[in-house]
Amino acid sequence: MAPPRGPRAGAGALTSVGVVVLAAGRGQRLGLGPKAHIDLAGRSFLARVVHACREARLGPIWVVGRRDDPVIAASAAALGARVVLNESPERGMSSSVRLGLESSRRAKLAGVLVFPVDYPLVRSATVAAVARAVLEPTGRAWARPTHAEQGGHPIAFQLALVEKILHESAELPLRDALRLHGGVAMDVPCDDAATLHDIDTPAELEAARLSLALR
Fold first, then answer.
1. How many separate domains does the chain show?
2. Burial status of residue 50 (CB atoms within 10 A of its CB: 0-12, 13-18, 19 or more)
3. What are the respective helix, strand and coil percentages of the chain, to the nearest 5?
4. CA–CA separation, 148 and 130 (whole Å)
5. 155 and 142 in contact (C-beta within 8 Å)?
6. pLDDT digits (tens, 9 = 90+) for 144-154
C-alpha cells in the first residue's frame, strides 16, 4: 500500500482547512489525567497532534478542552493554538466536536479536520492527505484515513457539511449527523497504523513509547 502524499508544491490550499483538536476527556482509563498533557517520549499528546498539523501546513487550530483542566489554555497558547472550553464535557465527544466546529465556522474555512488528541502518533503526511481529500472535487463531503481496510482518525469535513451538522440538534451524536448528511466518506488509504489506535490504557501507552523508541 502506498503511503499518503505529504505536503506538495502548491499545497497552500491546505491552510484553508482548519483543525479542531478534541481534548476534553478525563483520561480515566489511562489514569494520568487529561490525555492532552501526557508525556510521550518528551512531547505531550497535544504537542504531537499540533506539530503534525503544523507540519502538514494546515490552517488555524482550535483545542477543545474542559473547564476544570487548569493548564489546557496555557498549553494550547504555547503551541500557537486557540482554546475552546467545554463547560459540560460529560455530554460526550459530540459536544466537543460541535463547540470546535462552531468556533472554526467564523474563520470562513473550506474545511475542518477533527483530530482526537488520543491519536498522537498519526503522521503529518496522513494528516495532509486527509485534509487535501475534502478540497478535491470528488462529490464527497467528508474524508477519513483507512488502514488495513478500516476507517480511522482524524477525519475532515467540507464546510457545507459543517453547516449541516451545526443546524442539527446539539443532542444528535456526530455519527448520526454523518449518516444524515455526510453520505459515503472519501477513504484515504495509508500505511499509517496509528490512525486506528487511540491510546486509552497503560498498556497502549507503553506500546506507543516502545514504537517510538524503535523508530
1. 1
2. buried
3. 40, 20, 40
4. 16
5. yes
6. 999 999 999 99
Q: What is the pLDDT of residue 5?
A: 44
Residue 124 is classified by DSSP as H
CA gap 139, 196 in Å, rounded? 25
Task: Report which of 119, 95, 128, 103 is spatially closest to residue 46, judged by C-alpha positions.
Answer: 119
Contact of 111 with 157, CB cutoff 8 Å: yes
Q: Could you list the residue range(s) of the whole structural domain that residue 72 is in?
A: 14-213
Long-range contacts of 76-80 (CB under 8 A, 24+ apart): 76/46, 79/46, 79/47, 79/50, 80/50, 80/54
pTM, two decimal places: 0.91
User: Is residue 6 in some structural domain?
Assistant: no
Name which of 24, 125, 152 is nearest 76 in CA terms.
Answer: 24
Give the span between the Cα atoms of 59 and 183, in whole angstroms: 25
For residue 197, report the phi and psi dihedrals to the nearest 5 degrees.
-125, 105
Instruction: Tell me, yes or no, whether 71 lies in a domain.
Output: yes
Residue 130: give its domain's CATH number.
Answer: 3.90.550.10
Cβ atoms within 10 Å, residue 33: 13
How large is the C-alpha radius of gyration of the chain?
A: 16
Q: Residues 6 or more apart from 132 whose CB is under 8 A from it?
A: 5, 11, 13, 14
